[in-house]
Amino acid sequence: MGDSPAAERVLRAAVSAFAELGFHGASTREIAARAGMSPAAVYTHFRSKEDLLFGISLDSHEQVLAALHRAAAQGVTPPERMSSIMYEFTLFHARGRAGAWVANNEIAILTAEHARQIKALRRQMMEVVRSVIEAGLRTQDFHTSDPSMTCTALMTLSMNVERWYREDGRWSPEDIATHYRDLALRMLGVTS
Amino acid sequence: MGDSPAAERVLRAAVSAFAELGFHGASTREIAARAGMSPAAVYTHFRSKEDLLFGISLDSHEQVLAALHRAAAQGVTPPERMSSIMYEFTLFHARGRAGAWVANNEIAILTAEHARQIKALRRQMMEVVRSVIEAGLRTQDFHTSDPSMTCTALMTLSMNVERWYREDGRWSPEDIATHYRDLALRMLGVTS
DNA sequence: TGTAAATCTGAACAAGCGCTCAGCGATGAC
DNA sequence: GTCATCGCTGAGCGCTTGTTCAGATTTACA
């Protein structure tokens, strides 16, 4: 259920509608209109509106997790790894490829089972970043009094970009990713 | 319109309902129930649901702005001022006194005129932080390649705390404020 | 004690919601 | 040529939404 071209169109329509209007603010009629079909047609691809939100959320979380793993493998030393992670993670959210935060606020809307799955993926994302930070502490490249809180700060900082980024703004996604990469190293006490 | 004790109760009920369920997710009946009155009674205090959101937003933005001004006056050197600002700003959001972000996402819901007022307040908040950063650059206490983006990063970092802070978590608001204060100085290139 | 204002209620309005269903037209298999 | 399958539609279901209104109750002051 939900990987034909038409289903893909519904998914994209829902991402933009949810991002713009919020879950409750985006009606199924609005989503259907953006996908260029009747409201009833949406239900041939998705069981319910909640199922649609879950589909988006699962999709984007899996993509982000994969990107994180790829980025972490991109360097050797912890600072290199962290640079790569922060750059890619920020880029992802600046490009709005995520729709990740859609479910971030609205995780409470999901079914208990669906919420469990998303939370598990989010824990894995956290784990990737955490492990690099701890490696850096051991090699004394990083210095922080509370690795866990710094980890939270780093990730939420990046994810938040999706909220304020404007395509017509003065910064490109790459500008932001570059700057945030530098900020991350500073936050971890790397003195260059 | 809206400063009697009963109106205050409605305001608090709406803050919690909006924060928990989102603007569209929180019905006027739900808000009325939380305030301990009938749905119709809400409309003696507020013209509309949008007016209620605006009331909350205006209130919290004015409080945050005042706190920022107070904090900025708390130190002499730019690092001192910035420490104080970041601590207070973060504390405010961790304590959830804001309901600020409620309107942060949902500013699109507001009337054009109401949105203008909120945006103006937000610009003023930004200006307070910006001026301290620029003072620090002149005194060479701070070093950053893009003061404007660093300013955005600092503010969004703090504001985001309201999204993930849990009362039953391992960190107190003061813990977070203290850590974020240190992070802010690092992000601004202060070497201690 | 009487009166005006402030505050609240129950009932109801039109409109919009998520979702279902019988049926339509095109496509491809036999 | 027939028939099943698929993606889709228009109509409409039961329900909830924001909001209004006539009237009841409470409060404040003379």
TrEMBL record, chains A, B:
Keywords: DNA-binding. GO terms for molecular function: DNA-binding transcription factor activity; transcription cis-regulatory region binding. It holds the Pfam family TetR_N. Residues 4-64 form the HTH tetR-type domain. Residues 27-46 bind DNA. This is TetR/AcrR family transcriptional regulator. It comes from Leekyejoonella antrihumi.
